[in-house]
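Field: sequence (string)
Field: structure_tokens (string)

Example rows 1 and 2, in order.
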Amino acid sequence: MTCVAMGYPDDDFAANAVRSDREHNEEFVRYVGFAD
């Protein structure tokens, strides 16, 4: 599925203020076998 946004941005639209409270990758991901 693909979505294309068309029109002008509405900076006052409530959905634009939603921020995720997910944990950062560093808090639960472990990379094994890859050198920095």
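Row 2 begins here:
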Amino acid sequence: MTDPTIFGKIIRRELPADIVYEDDELIAFRDIAPQAPVHVLFVPKTPIATLNELQPEQAAVVGKLAYAAAQYAKREGFAEDGYRVVMNCNEHGGQTVFQLHLHLLAGDHLGRFGTPR
């Protein structure tokens, strides 16, 4: 893993994180600046900067991120109430860490989505 981002440092255990899930391909941890009562980031261990850089042979990683997030929501008991998953891509899409990742947000009514600032 040669990812120079903060997520790469978390994966390599160079930085601490509140890790809630990990397997051979993914890691998930609580966001340090949560935007909802529950805000967990699901990150592939393979460095992929943005969704735009995803290669055909890597497409399954998006499904694995979504599946892991859904399983976490079920395990934590908020799947029935509802949650949101978001993947930002590049600056105008709100991406601030350039390593592909999925945000899981839950724990409150999240309101409408997609209104520009």
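free_text_note (row 2): The first helix runs from residue 6 to 11.
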